[in-house]
Amino acid sequence: MDFIPMVITDPNIMEPNAISGQLRTRNFTSTFTTTVSSVKRLQEADTTTSQISVRLALSSAEAGTDIAGGNSILPHTEFSISNNTTGEITAVEITAQTAITIDDAPVPTNIYNSSDADAVYNKYAIYTARCRIPDYDYNEQTIMKKYFSNTPKMCPADAKPFVFYPKIDLKGFSCIAFDQNTFDKYYKANFSKWNCTYKETFRNPKYQVIDKHYDFGKRLPLVVDSCPRKEFLWIECDLPGTGGKEKDKYEQPLMLPLVKPVMYPLRPNNFGKKPVHVLIVGLDSVSRLNAHRQFPKTLKFLQAKKNIVELYGYNKIGLNSAPNQIPLLTGIQYYPAPGLRSRIDNTYFDNVTRFLWNDYEERGYRTMFYEEQWHYGLFVYPSLKGFKQVPTTYWSRPMMQAVDKSTLKASGYSWCIGPDFPAKHYLDYTYNTMKILGEDRPLFSYSWLSETAHDDINGGHRIDKYFEDFFAKMDRDGILNRTAVFFISDHGFRFGSFRTTTQGRYEDTLPYGFILLPESYYNENPKALANIKANSRRLVTVYDLHATLLELADMWSEGRVTRTANGYSLISNVIPDDRTCEHANIGFQYCSCFESQPYDRKGRLATSFAQFVLDSINHIVEKNNATLKCHEWTLRDIDDLTRLSEGELWTDIFKISLSTKPSAQFEVAGKFIQNANKIGGVEWKLVADIDRIDWFSSHAKCVKGSSYERYCYCRE
Asked: Which pTM does this prediction carry?
């Protein structure tokens, strides 16, 4: 163990300063002078600790001397110290690092060459034995002005709203209602002269890939206040022309929730308690910190609830939507092989594995699943076949397809239907379904939105008001008090200039997650709230959310699931303090627990790694026989190179970000291996898939939908 006796003039100092002292090892004592390049007072949760993280750049006459058993000293190191009130520190523990060499020459680090100098933090979201996740200020003004100042485009305020809406009958019927006030205000016409019809929108099994198609039924006369036993209606009205003009046309979608039968009766429990609704509602591509930027109204409402819990260490496990959401639904890995993805080529998802909705259905629940941007859906993109049979009780995909292909979106701002984004109508559909089912017919719902935020880092702001209204209506009607809510995302924003920064990389891997369970449940099980709050400061994945949702399926049963092969239920367990990304089944590429040490991005280590990455990308193109379609990649610049540490333990894992010709940006983690049989004594092994962090769809059209789309820059 190595120790440095030293004196810091002010124990609360947070600015770089000079420190002098002695470095002692088993074999010798070396006098040195250091420059403190950074000092951070650590926080665990919201409490300031007595720990100060200090990074030193050593300057010593014996700088090349053998120290701590290594064959060369690295020119800077990092460690933590505990200070007392006098400011005199008698011992500092140093964590030794393995020296990195190329051709037996030491590879220097350079703490000043990071590509992002704006990333500043002075506390941690997670600070455990093996996981330290920095907690940045989401509202830091430099970051806000540079990346979050653009106001997202909203739907036109002067667009005419729809005049038909669903009315829930006391007997459990859903009826077509007419809003006379809206009609009078915006249309200023005689409704009796409108000729209105509707046609059903439905899923047609005649197609080979059923989930990529929809059909319309026959047109039927629309009667206001009628209650057709059809769920998805497309309404069309012919309006009389004025001043010699041809007839105008009015159209709108209408989603009428129905009380559908269940396949299994409700399971009795040992306590005579009623089951609760279980609601997963998500917005794609929003980090935890960005949720605070984008959803001020929604979070103000939710955080006023005393039982709301925010997950500070909720870490993604895969690159994009499918490898994060499908494990949430199944509890098993999607990528790489032998994950679920390798089992579904040229087949439907039916009976391939169990989904959460199967578990809830067998317990007497009705189930719901929908996702915006259906063409990029979990079960069809890029070339999958989806489901042959509808897998859930409520499946609104045909209506969402009709909306996206309608003239409502083709005219004006293509994301809107009338004055609203479609997300408003989909959330209304979820709310109305829970309302019509009442207290005795529980619903498991997976309601996933994406269109407003997937391609715009500020896009979540567009539906903040929708989310607030959705939860407020549930609260007003007493639904929230009998609903377990998981308000989540799958990952952060994955592209663009902010993603290339240090903070942007963290935000990509840390989506938002909030859990709100009914107060009545906590009253019966107070330990559950304590456990969930403890887990809010632990490393959490979708595997843990899956296990939690399995436990809720049998929430009043003594035989309920509390652990799975890959996850802990957050209700009945406190995740171990020493959990690592490896334990949590998080790949190196996506692990937020690693702290990083910048390395010289102009040195031989960096160029060696960069060339290996480029060779790997070009090999992917080559093995897919696409070299005639796609350009060969060459290096433009190395943007960043960092070495990763896990708590106090330094690894041989490096992460590199590089720019290429043609213009693209890639990022990947790889393991450094000393190998005398290789050129320069260096060998690399990728520990994750290579990620593309710039927009690529416009110049990869020649291989659109392929597994290697992100690695292609089309020649034409």
From this structure: 0.83
